[in-house]
Design brief:
Elements lengths: L1 H19 L4 E9 L7 H12 L8 E6 L11 E9 L1
Parallel strand pairs: 1-2
Antiparallel strand pairs: 1-3
């Protein structure tokens, strides 16, 4: 359930940014996964592909940075670092 909430929030941010830029599609997404987010790159990728299906971000290249710092204030979070769009 934790993953579903994280992905809903992430997709909402991606959609809002893409809409603000009048993007035709999102071609790349960069995220940072906190050490306590319980995400591996493969696990995150699976959830991302499922969440992005049928959206402007479907098929986007994914760049995932995994943190090992459990004391980071965002250690439980998944943070959107950037998106690359096609106008």
């Amino acid at each position: 359930m934790h993953e579903a909430s994280l992905m809903r929030d992430l997709m909402a941010k991606i959609d809002a940014l893409a809409e603000a830029e009048k993007a035709r599609r999102v071609v790349a997404v960069s995220v940072w996964c906190g050490a306590l987010s319980h995400m591996t790159e493969a696990h995150f990728g699976e959830h991302f592909r499922q969440s992005a299906a049928g959206t402007i971000a479907e098929g986007a290249r994914l760049d995932v940075t995994l943190s090992t710092d459990i004391s980071d204030p965002n250690a439980q979070d998944v943070l959107l670092e950037s998106i690359e769009i096609e106008g």
